[in-house]
Every structure is written in C-alpha cells, then in structure tokens.
Amino acid sequence: MLALRPVQLTDLPQLQQLARDSLVGVTSLPDDTERLREKIHGSCASFEADVQKPGGENYFFVLQDLDSGRLVGCSEILSSTGCNEPFYSLRNRPFSSESRELNIQHGVPALSLCQDLNGQTLLRGFHIDAGRVRTPESELLSRARLMFIAAHPQRFAESVITEIVGYSDDDGQSPFWDAIGQHFFDLPYVEAERLCGLQSRTFLAELMPQYPIYVPMLPQAAQDCIGRVHPDGQEAFDILEREGFETNSYVDIFDGGPTLHARIANVRSIAQSRLASARQSLQIDARGRYLVSNDGVGNYRAIVAELGIDTEGCVDLTPDMLAALDATDGERVRVIAL
After folding, report:
1. Full residue range of the structural domain in which residue 210 is found
2. Domain identity same for 15 and 36
3. Sign of dihedral through CA atoms 196, 232, 13, 145?
4. Strand partners of residue 307
5. Global confidence as pTM
6. By its UniProt entry, which Gene3D superfamilies does this protein fall under (predicted)?
7. Which residue numbers are catalytic?
8. CA pair distance 20, 14, nearest whole angstrom
9. Angle at 4 between CA 284 and CA 47, to 5 degrees
10. In sequence order, what DSSP letters do the residues of 229-276 get, joined into one string?
11. Whether residues 19 and 128 fall in one domain
12. DSSP per residue, 271-294
C-alpha cells in the first residue's frame, strides 16, 4: 500500500535520488543535499506552525510504499507566492497599436515580465517514479494536496496556480530559452534551471528584459513553445485540468510552459470531497475507488482504496487502511471518488 505523508529529515537520502530522476524544469526539487535539507526543515516548521493565514509556508509531501519503505514520489504546496521573494512570470497579452489616419488597429502578442501572480497558493514539485505514471498513485500524489487544502483552508489563498514544465528536447535544449534567456545569461537552459533550484529565480528574473517582447519577432520554434507542455509534464497538466484548473495568459519565464489557475472553491477535490466516519471492518463491500485522507496537519496521511460508503455517511476501512491513515475507528476521514 502507498501512503502520502509530510516529509521527514530521514527521507533526505531517498529524496535526493528522486531529485536526480526528476524532470529538468522542476526547480523546486534540486539535486543538492543542503538545499533539500533546508526544504525539509522548512516544511517541518510549516506543518508544526499554528497558521491562521498564508504566510509563505511550504508543505512538502512524499509518497511512500509502506511495505518496502521506499519513496516513489513527492509534491509540494507553497501557501502564498511572493512572501519571501517576488514570483515572476511572463504575461502573454496583445500590445495594441492604432493609426487613425490609416484607420488601422493592430494587436501584436507580447510577453511582459510581471509579478501579477504574487499572493496565490502554488502547487509545485510534482514527481513520481516512471513506472507509476498514469496510475491511481499519480492521482493520489497530486490530488491529496488539494484535500489537505480542503481540510485547512485558512492556511491557503483563495486561488491556486501551478506552472507546468515547458518543452525542451531530449538533449535539454529549450528553443524558448535559447531565443530569450540565453541572450541575457551566458548559460544553457539546464544550468539556468539548476541555479534557480539552488538559489531562487529572483536573480535571474531581474536580468531578464524589462520591456515587452514581441512574439512575432521570436523564431518560430520559440513561438511554438509558448504554452507548450513537456511530454513528461502532460500527466500533471491532465490531472489538474480534470480538477477544474484552466490555462491563463501567464507562462514560465524560462521555458514558456503554461500556468494553470483555479479558484479554491471551484476545485473538484476541495469542493466535492466530504467527511465520513471511519468504521473498522475486516471485510469491505467495495463499490468504487476513492482517495481517502485524515484531516490532520503534521500527521496528515492519504491513500487510495476500494471502498463502499453507506447512506449514513460511514466508510468501512480495514485495520491496515486505518494504520496507513494514522486514524482510529470512529474518526472522521475525508473521501472523494477517484
């Protein structure tokens, strides 16, 4: 059985292996021992804090095989962007010009560096072993974060975003970066992303062009990357799109990948998850597959299980399921159909 839980310091060696295997562009998962150690300490402090409003806390989750103890994935929630450093994006909107004499109006798409997305809750750091891609465990790794938000809404903003990794080829070359960022930093795309993961995107973003970049003046290969998802990032995109997330006019400053956005109240796993009373049972009349979580903070747990929920709002769980959820007979648990 797999269970999602908050990260612990003892996870560091396995977490570093996940970082080595992660997709280029997942900058929140750097392959660096000290940076990962800092992230773990920061996450532990966030889970322990008595939070009444979002203040930049970072909640780091890992997906663990309870039989082997092996970590097979991880994901994060940053409670509010812009609290500790500016959150930069590129806004993709038309720049309009007009000639009254010629009676011509023309709109040219342009990319502008901005901090419009400060103050949003950010989903990030999604990574799962290749062998578990497009399985119920992927849904668990992504959506259990949303169930945590549902259980503790005061810790998060009213809207949530995520940046999906943009296109780069098998050699790690990004046409979007080559057309824009490469001119301002003498760095290849992979190295720029690595530095961003080790430090922050702020020092890189501050050297980016401060004036609009007219999209038609970019090479066609770079234009084609705007809003394009890396093939290995498609699952993360698809899961959240089914949750009610939509693309908007913002893209990543390095690879042009799309940004997804949703109001908390409109996200399926938040709006439609419901509480039920756990009832210990050795046999389950399974009628469907569900995501199940407790409503804890530091002891938060979530699993995927075949369940049946009766009309009285009770859900039967085996002793193994209750143990995986760190829950007891009669405790309230949160459920939503997979």
Report:
1. 2-90+114-269
2. yes
3. positive
4. 288
5. 0.92
6. 2.40.40.20
7. 230
8. 10
9. 125
10. BPGGGHHHHHHHHHTT-EEEEEE-TTT--EEEEEEGGG-HHHHS-EEE
11. yes
12. HS-EEEEEEE-SS----EEEEEE-
Tell me which of 250, 269, 288 is where a domain ends.
269
Spacing of C-alpha 263 from chain mean position: 15
d(CA 278, CA 287): 16
Domain identity same for 125 and 256: yes
Three-state DSSP at 226 gives coil
Query: Are 242 and 281 part of one and the same domain?
Result: no
Dihedral sign for Cα atoms in the order 77, 260, 133, 20? negative
User: At 183, which amino acid appears?
Assistant: H
Our CA angle for 312, 313, 317, nearest 5°, is 115
DSSP state of 132: G
Q: Would you state the structure tokens that stand for residue 307, as one six-digit string? A: 């369940």
User: How many Å apart are CA 127 and CA 233, to the nearest integer?
Assistant: 9
Q: Write the DSSP string, 69-88.
A: --EEEEEEEES-TTSSS---
Task: Retrieve residue 64's tokens.
Answer: 């663990």
> What are the tens digits of pLDDT across the range 73-109?
999 999 999 998 889 999 999 887 665 666 667 678 9
Q: Are strands 71-78 and 121-128 parallel, antiparallel or unpaired?
A: antiparallel
The conformation of residue 166, written as its DSSP 8-state character, comes to B
On whether both 304 and 174 belong to a single domain, the answer is no
Is 239 within a domain? yes
Same domain, 121 and 249: yes
Q: Give, in degrees to the nearest 5, the angle at Cα 215 between 211 and 106.
A: 90
Query: What residue spans of the chain are helical by DSSP H?
Result: 12-21, 33-48, 136-151, 175-179, 189-198, 202-205, 220-223, 234-242, 268-271, 319-324
Number of domains forming the structure of the chain: 2
Angle value at C-alpha 210, between 206 and 213, nearest 5 degrees:
125
pLDDT digits (tens, 9 = 90+) for 202-244: 766 777 788 899 999 999 999 999 999 999 999 999 999 999 9
**What digits encode the pLDDT tens for the residues 250-305?**
999 989 999 999 999 999 999 999 999 999 998 888 888 999 999 999 999 999 99
- Cα–Cα dist 119/150, whole Å: 18
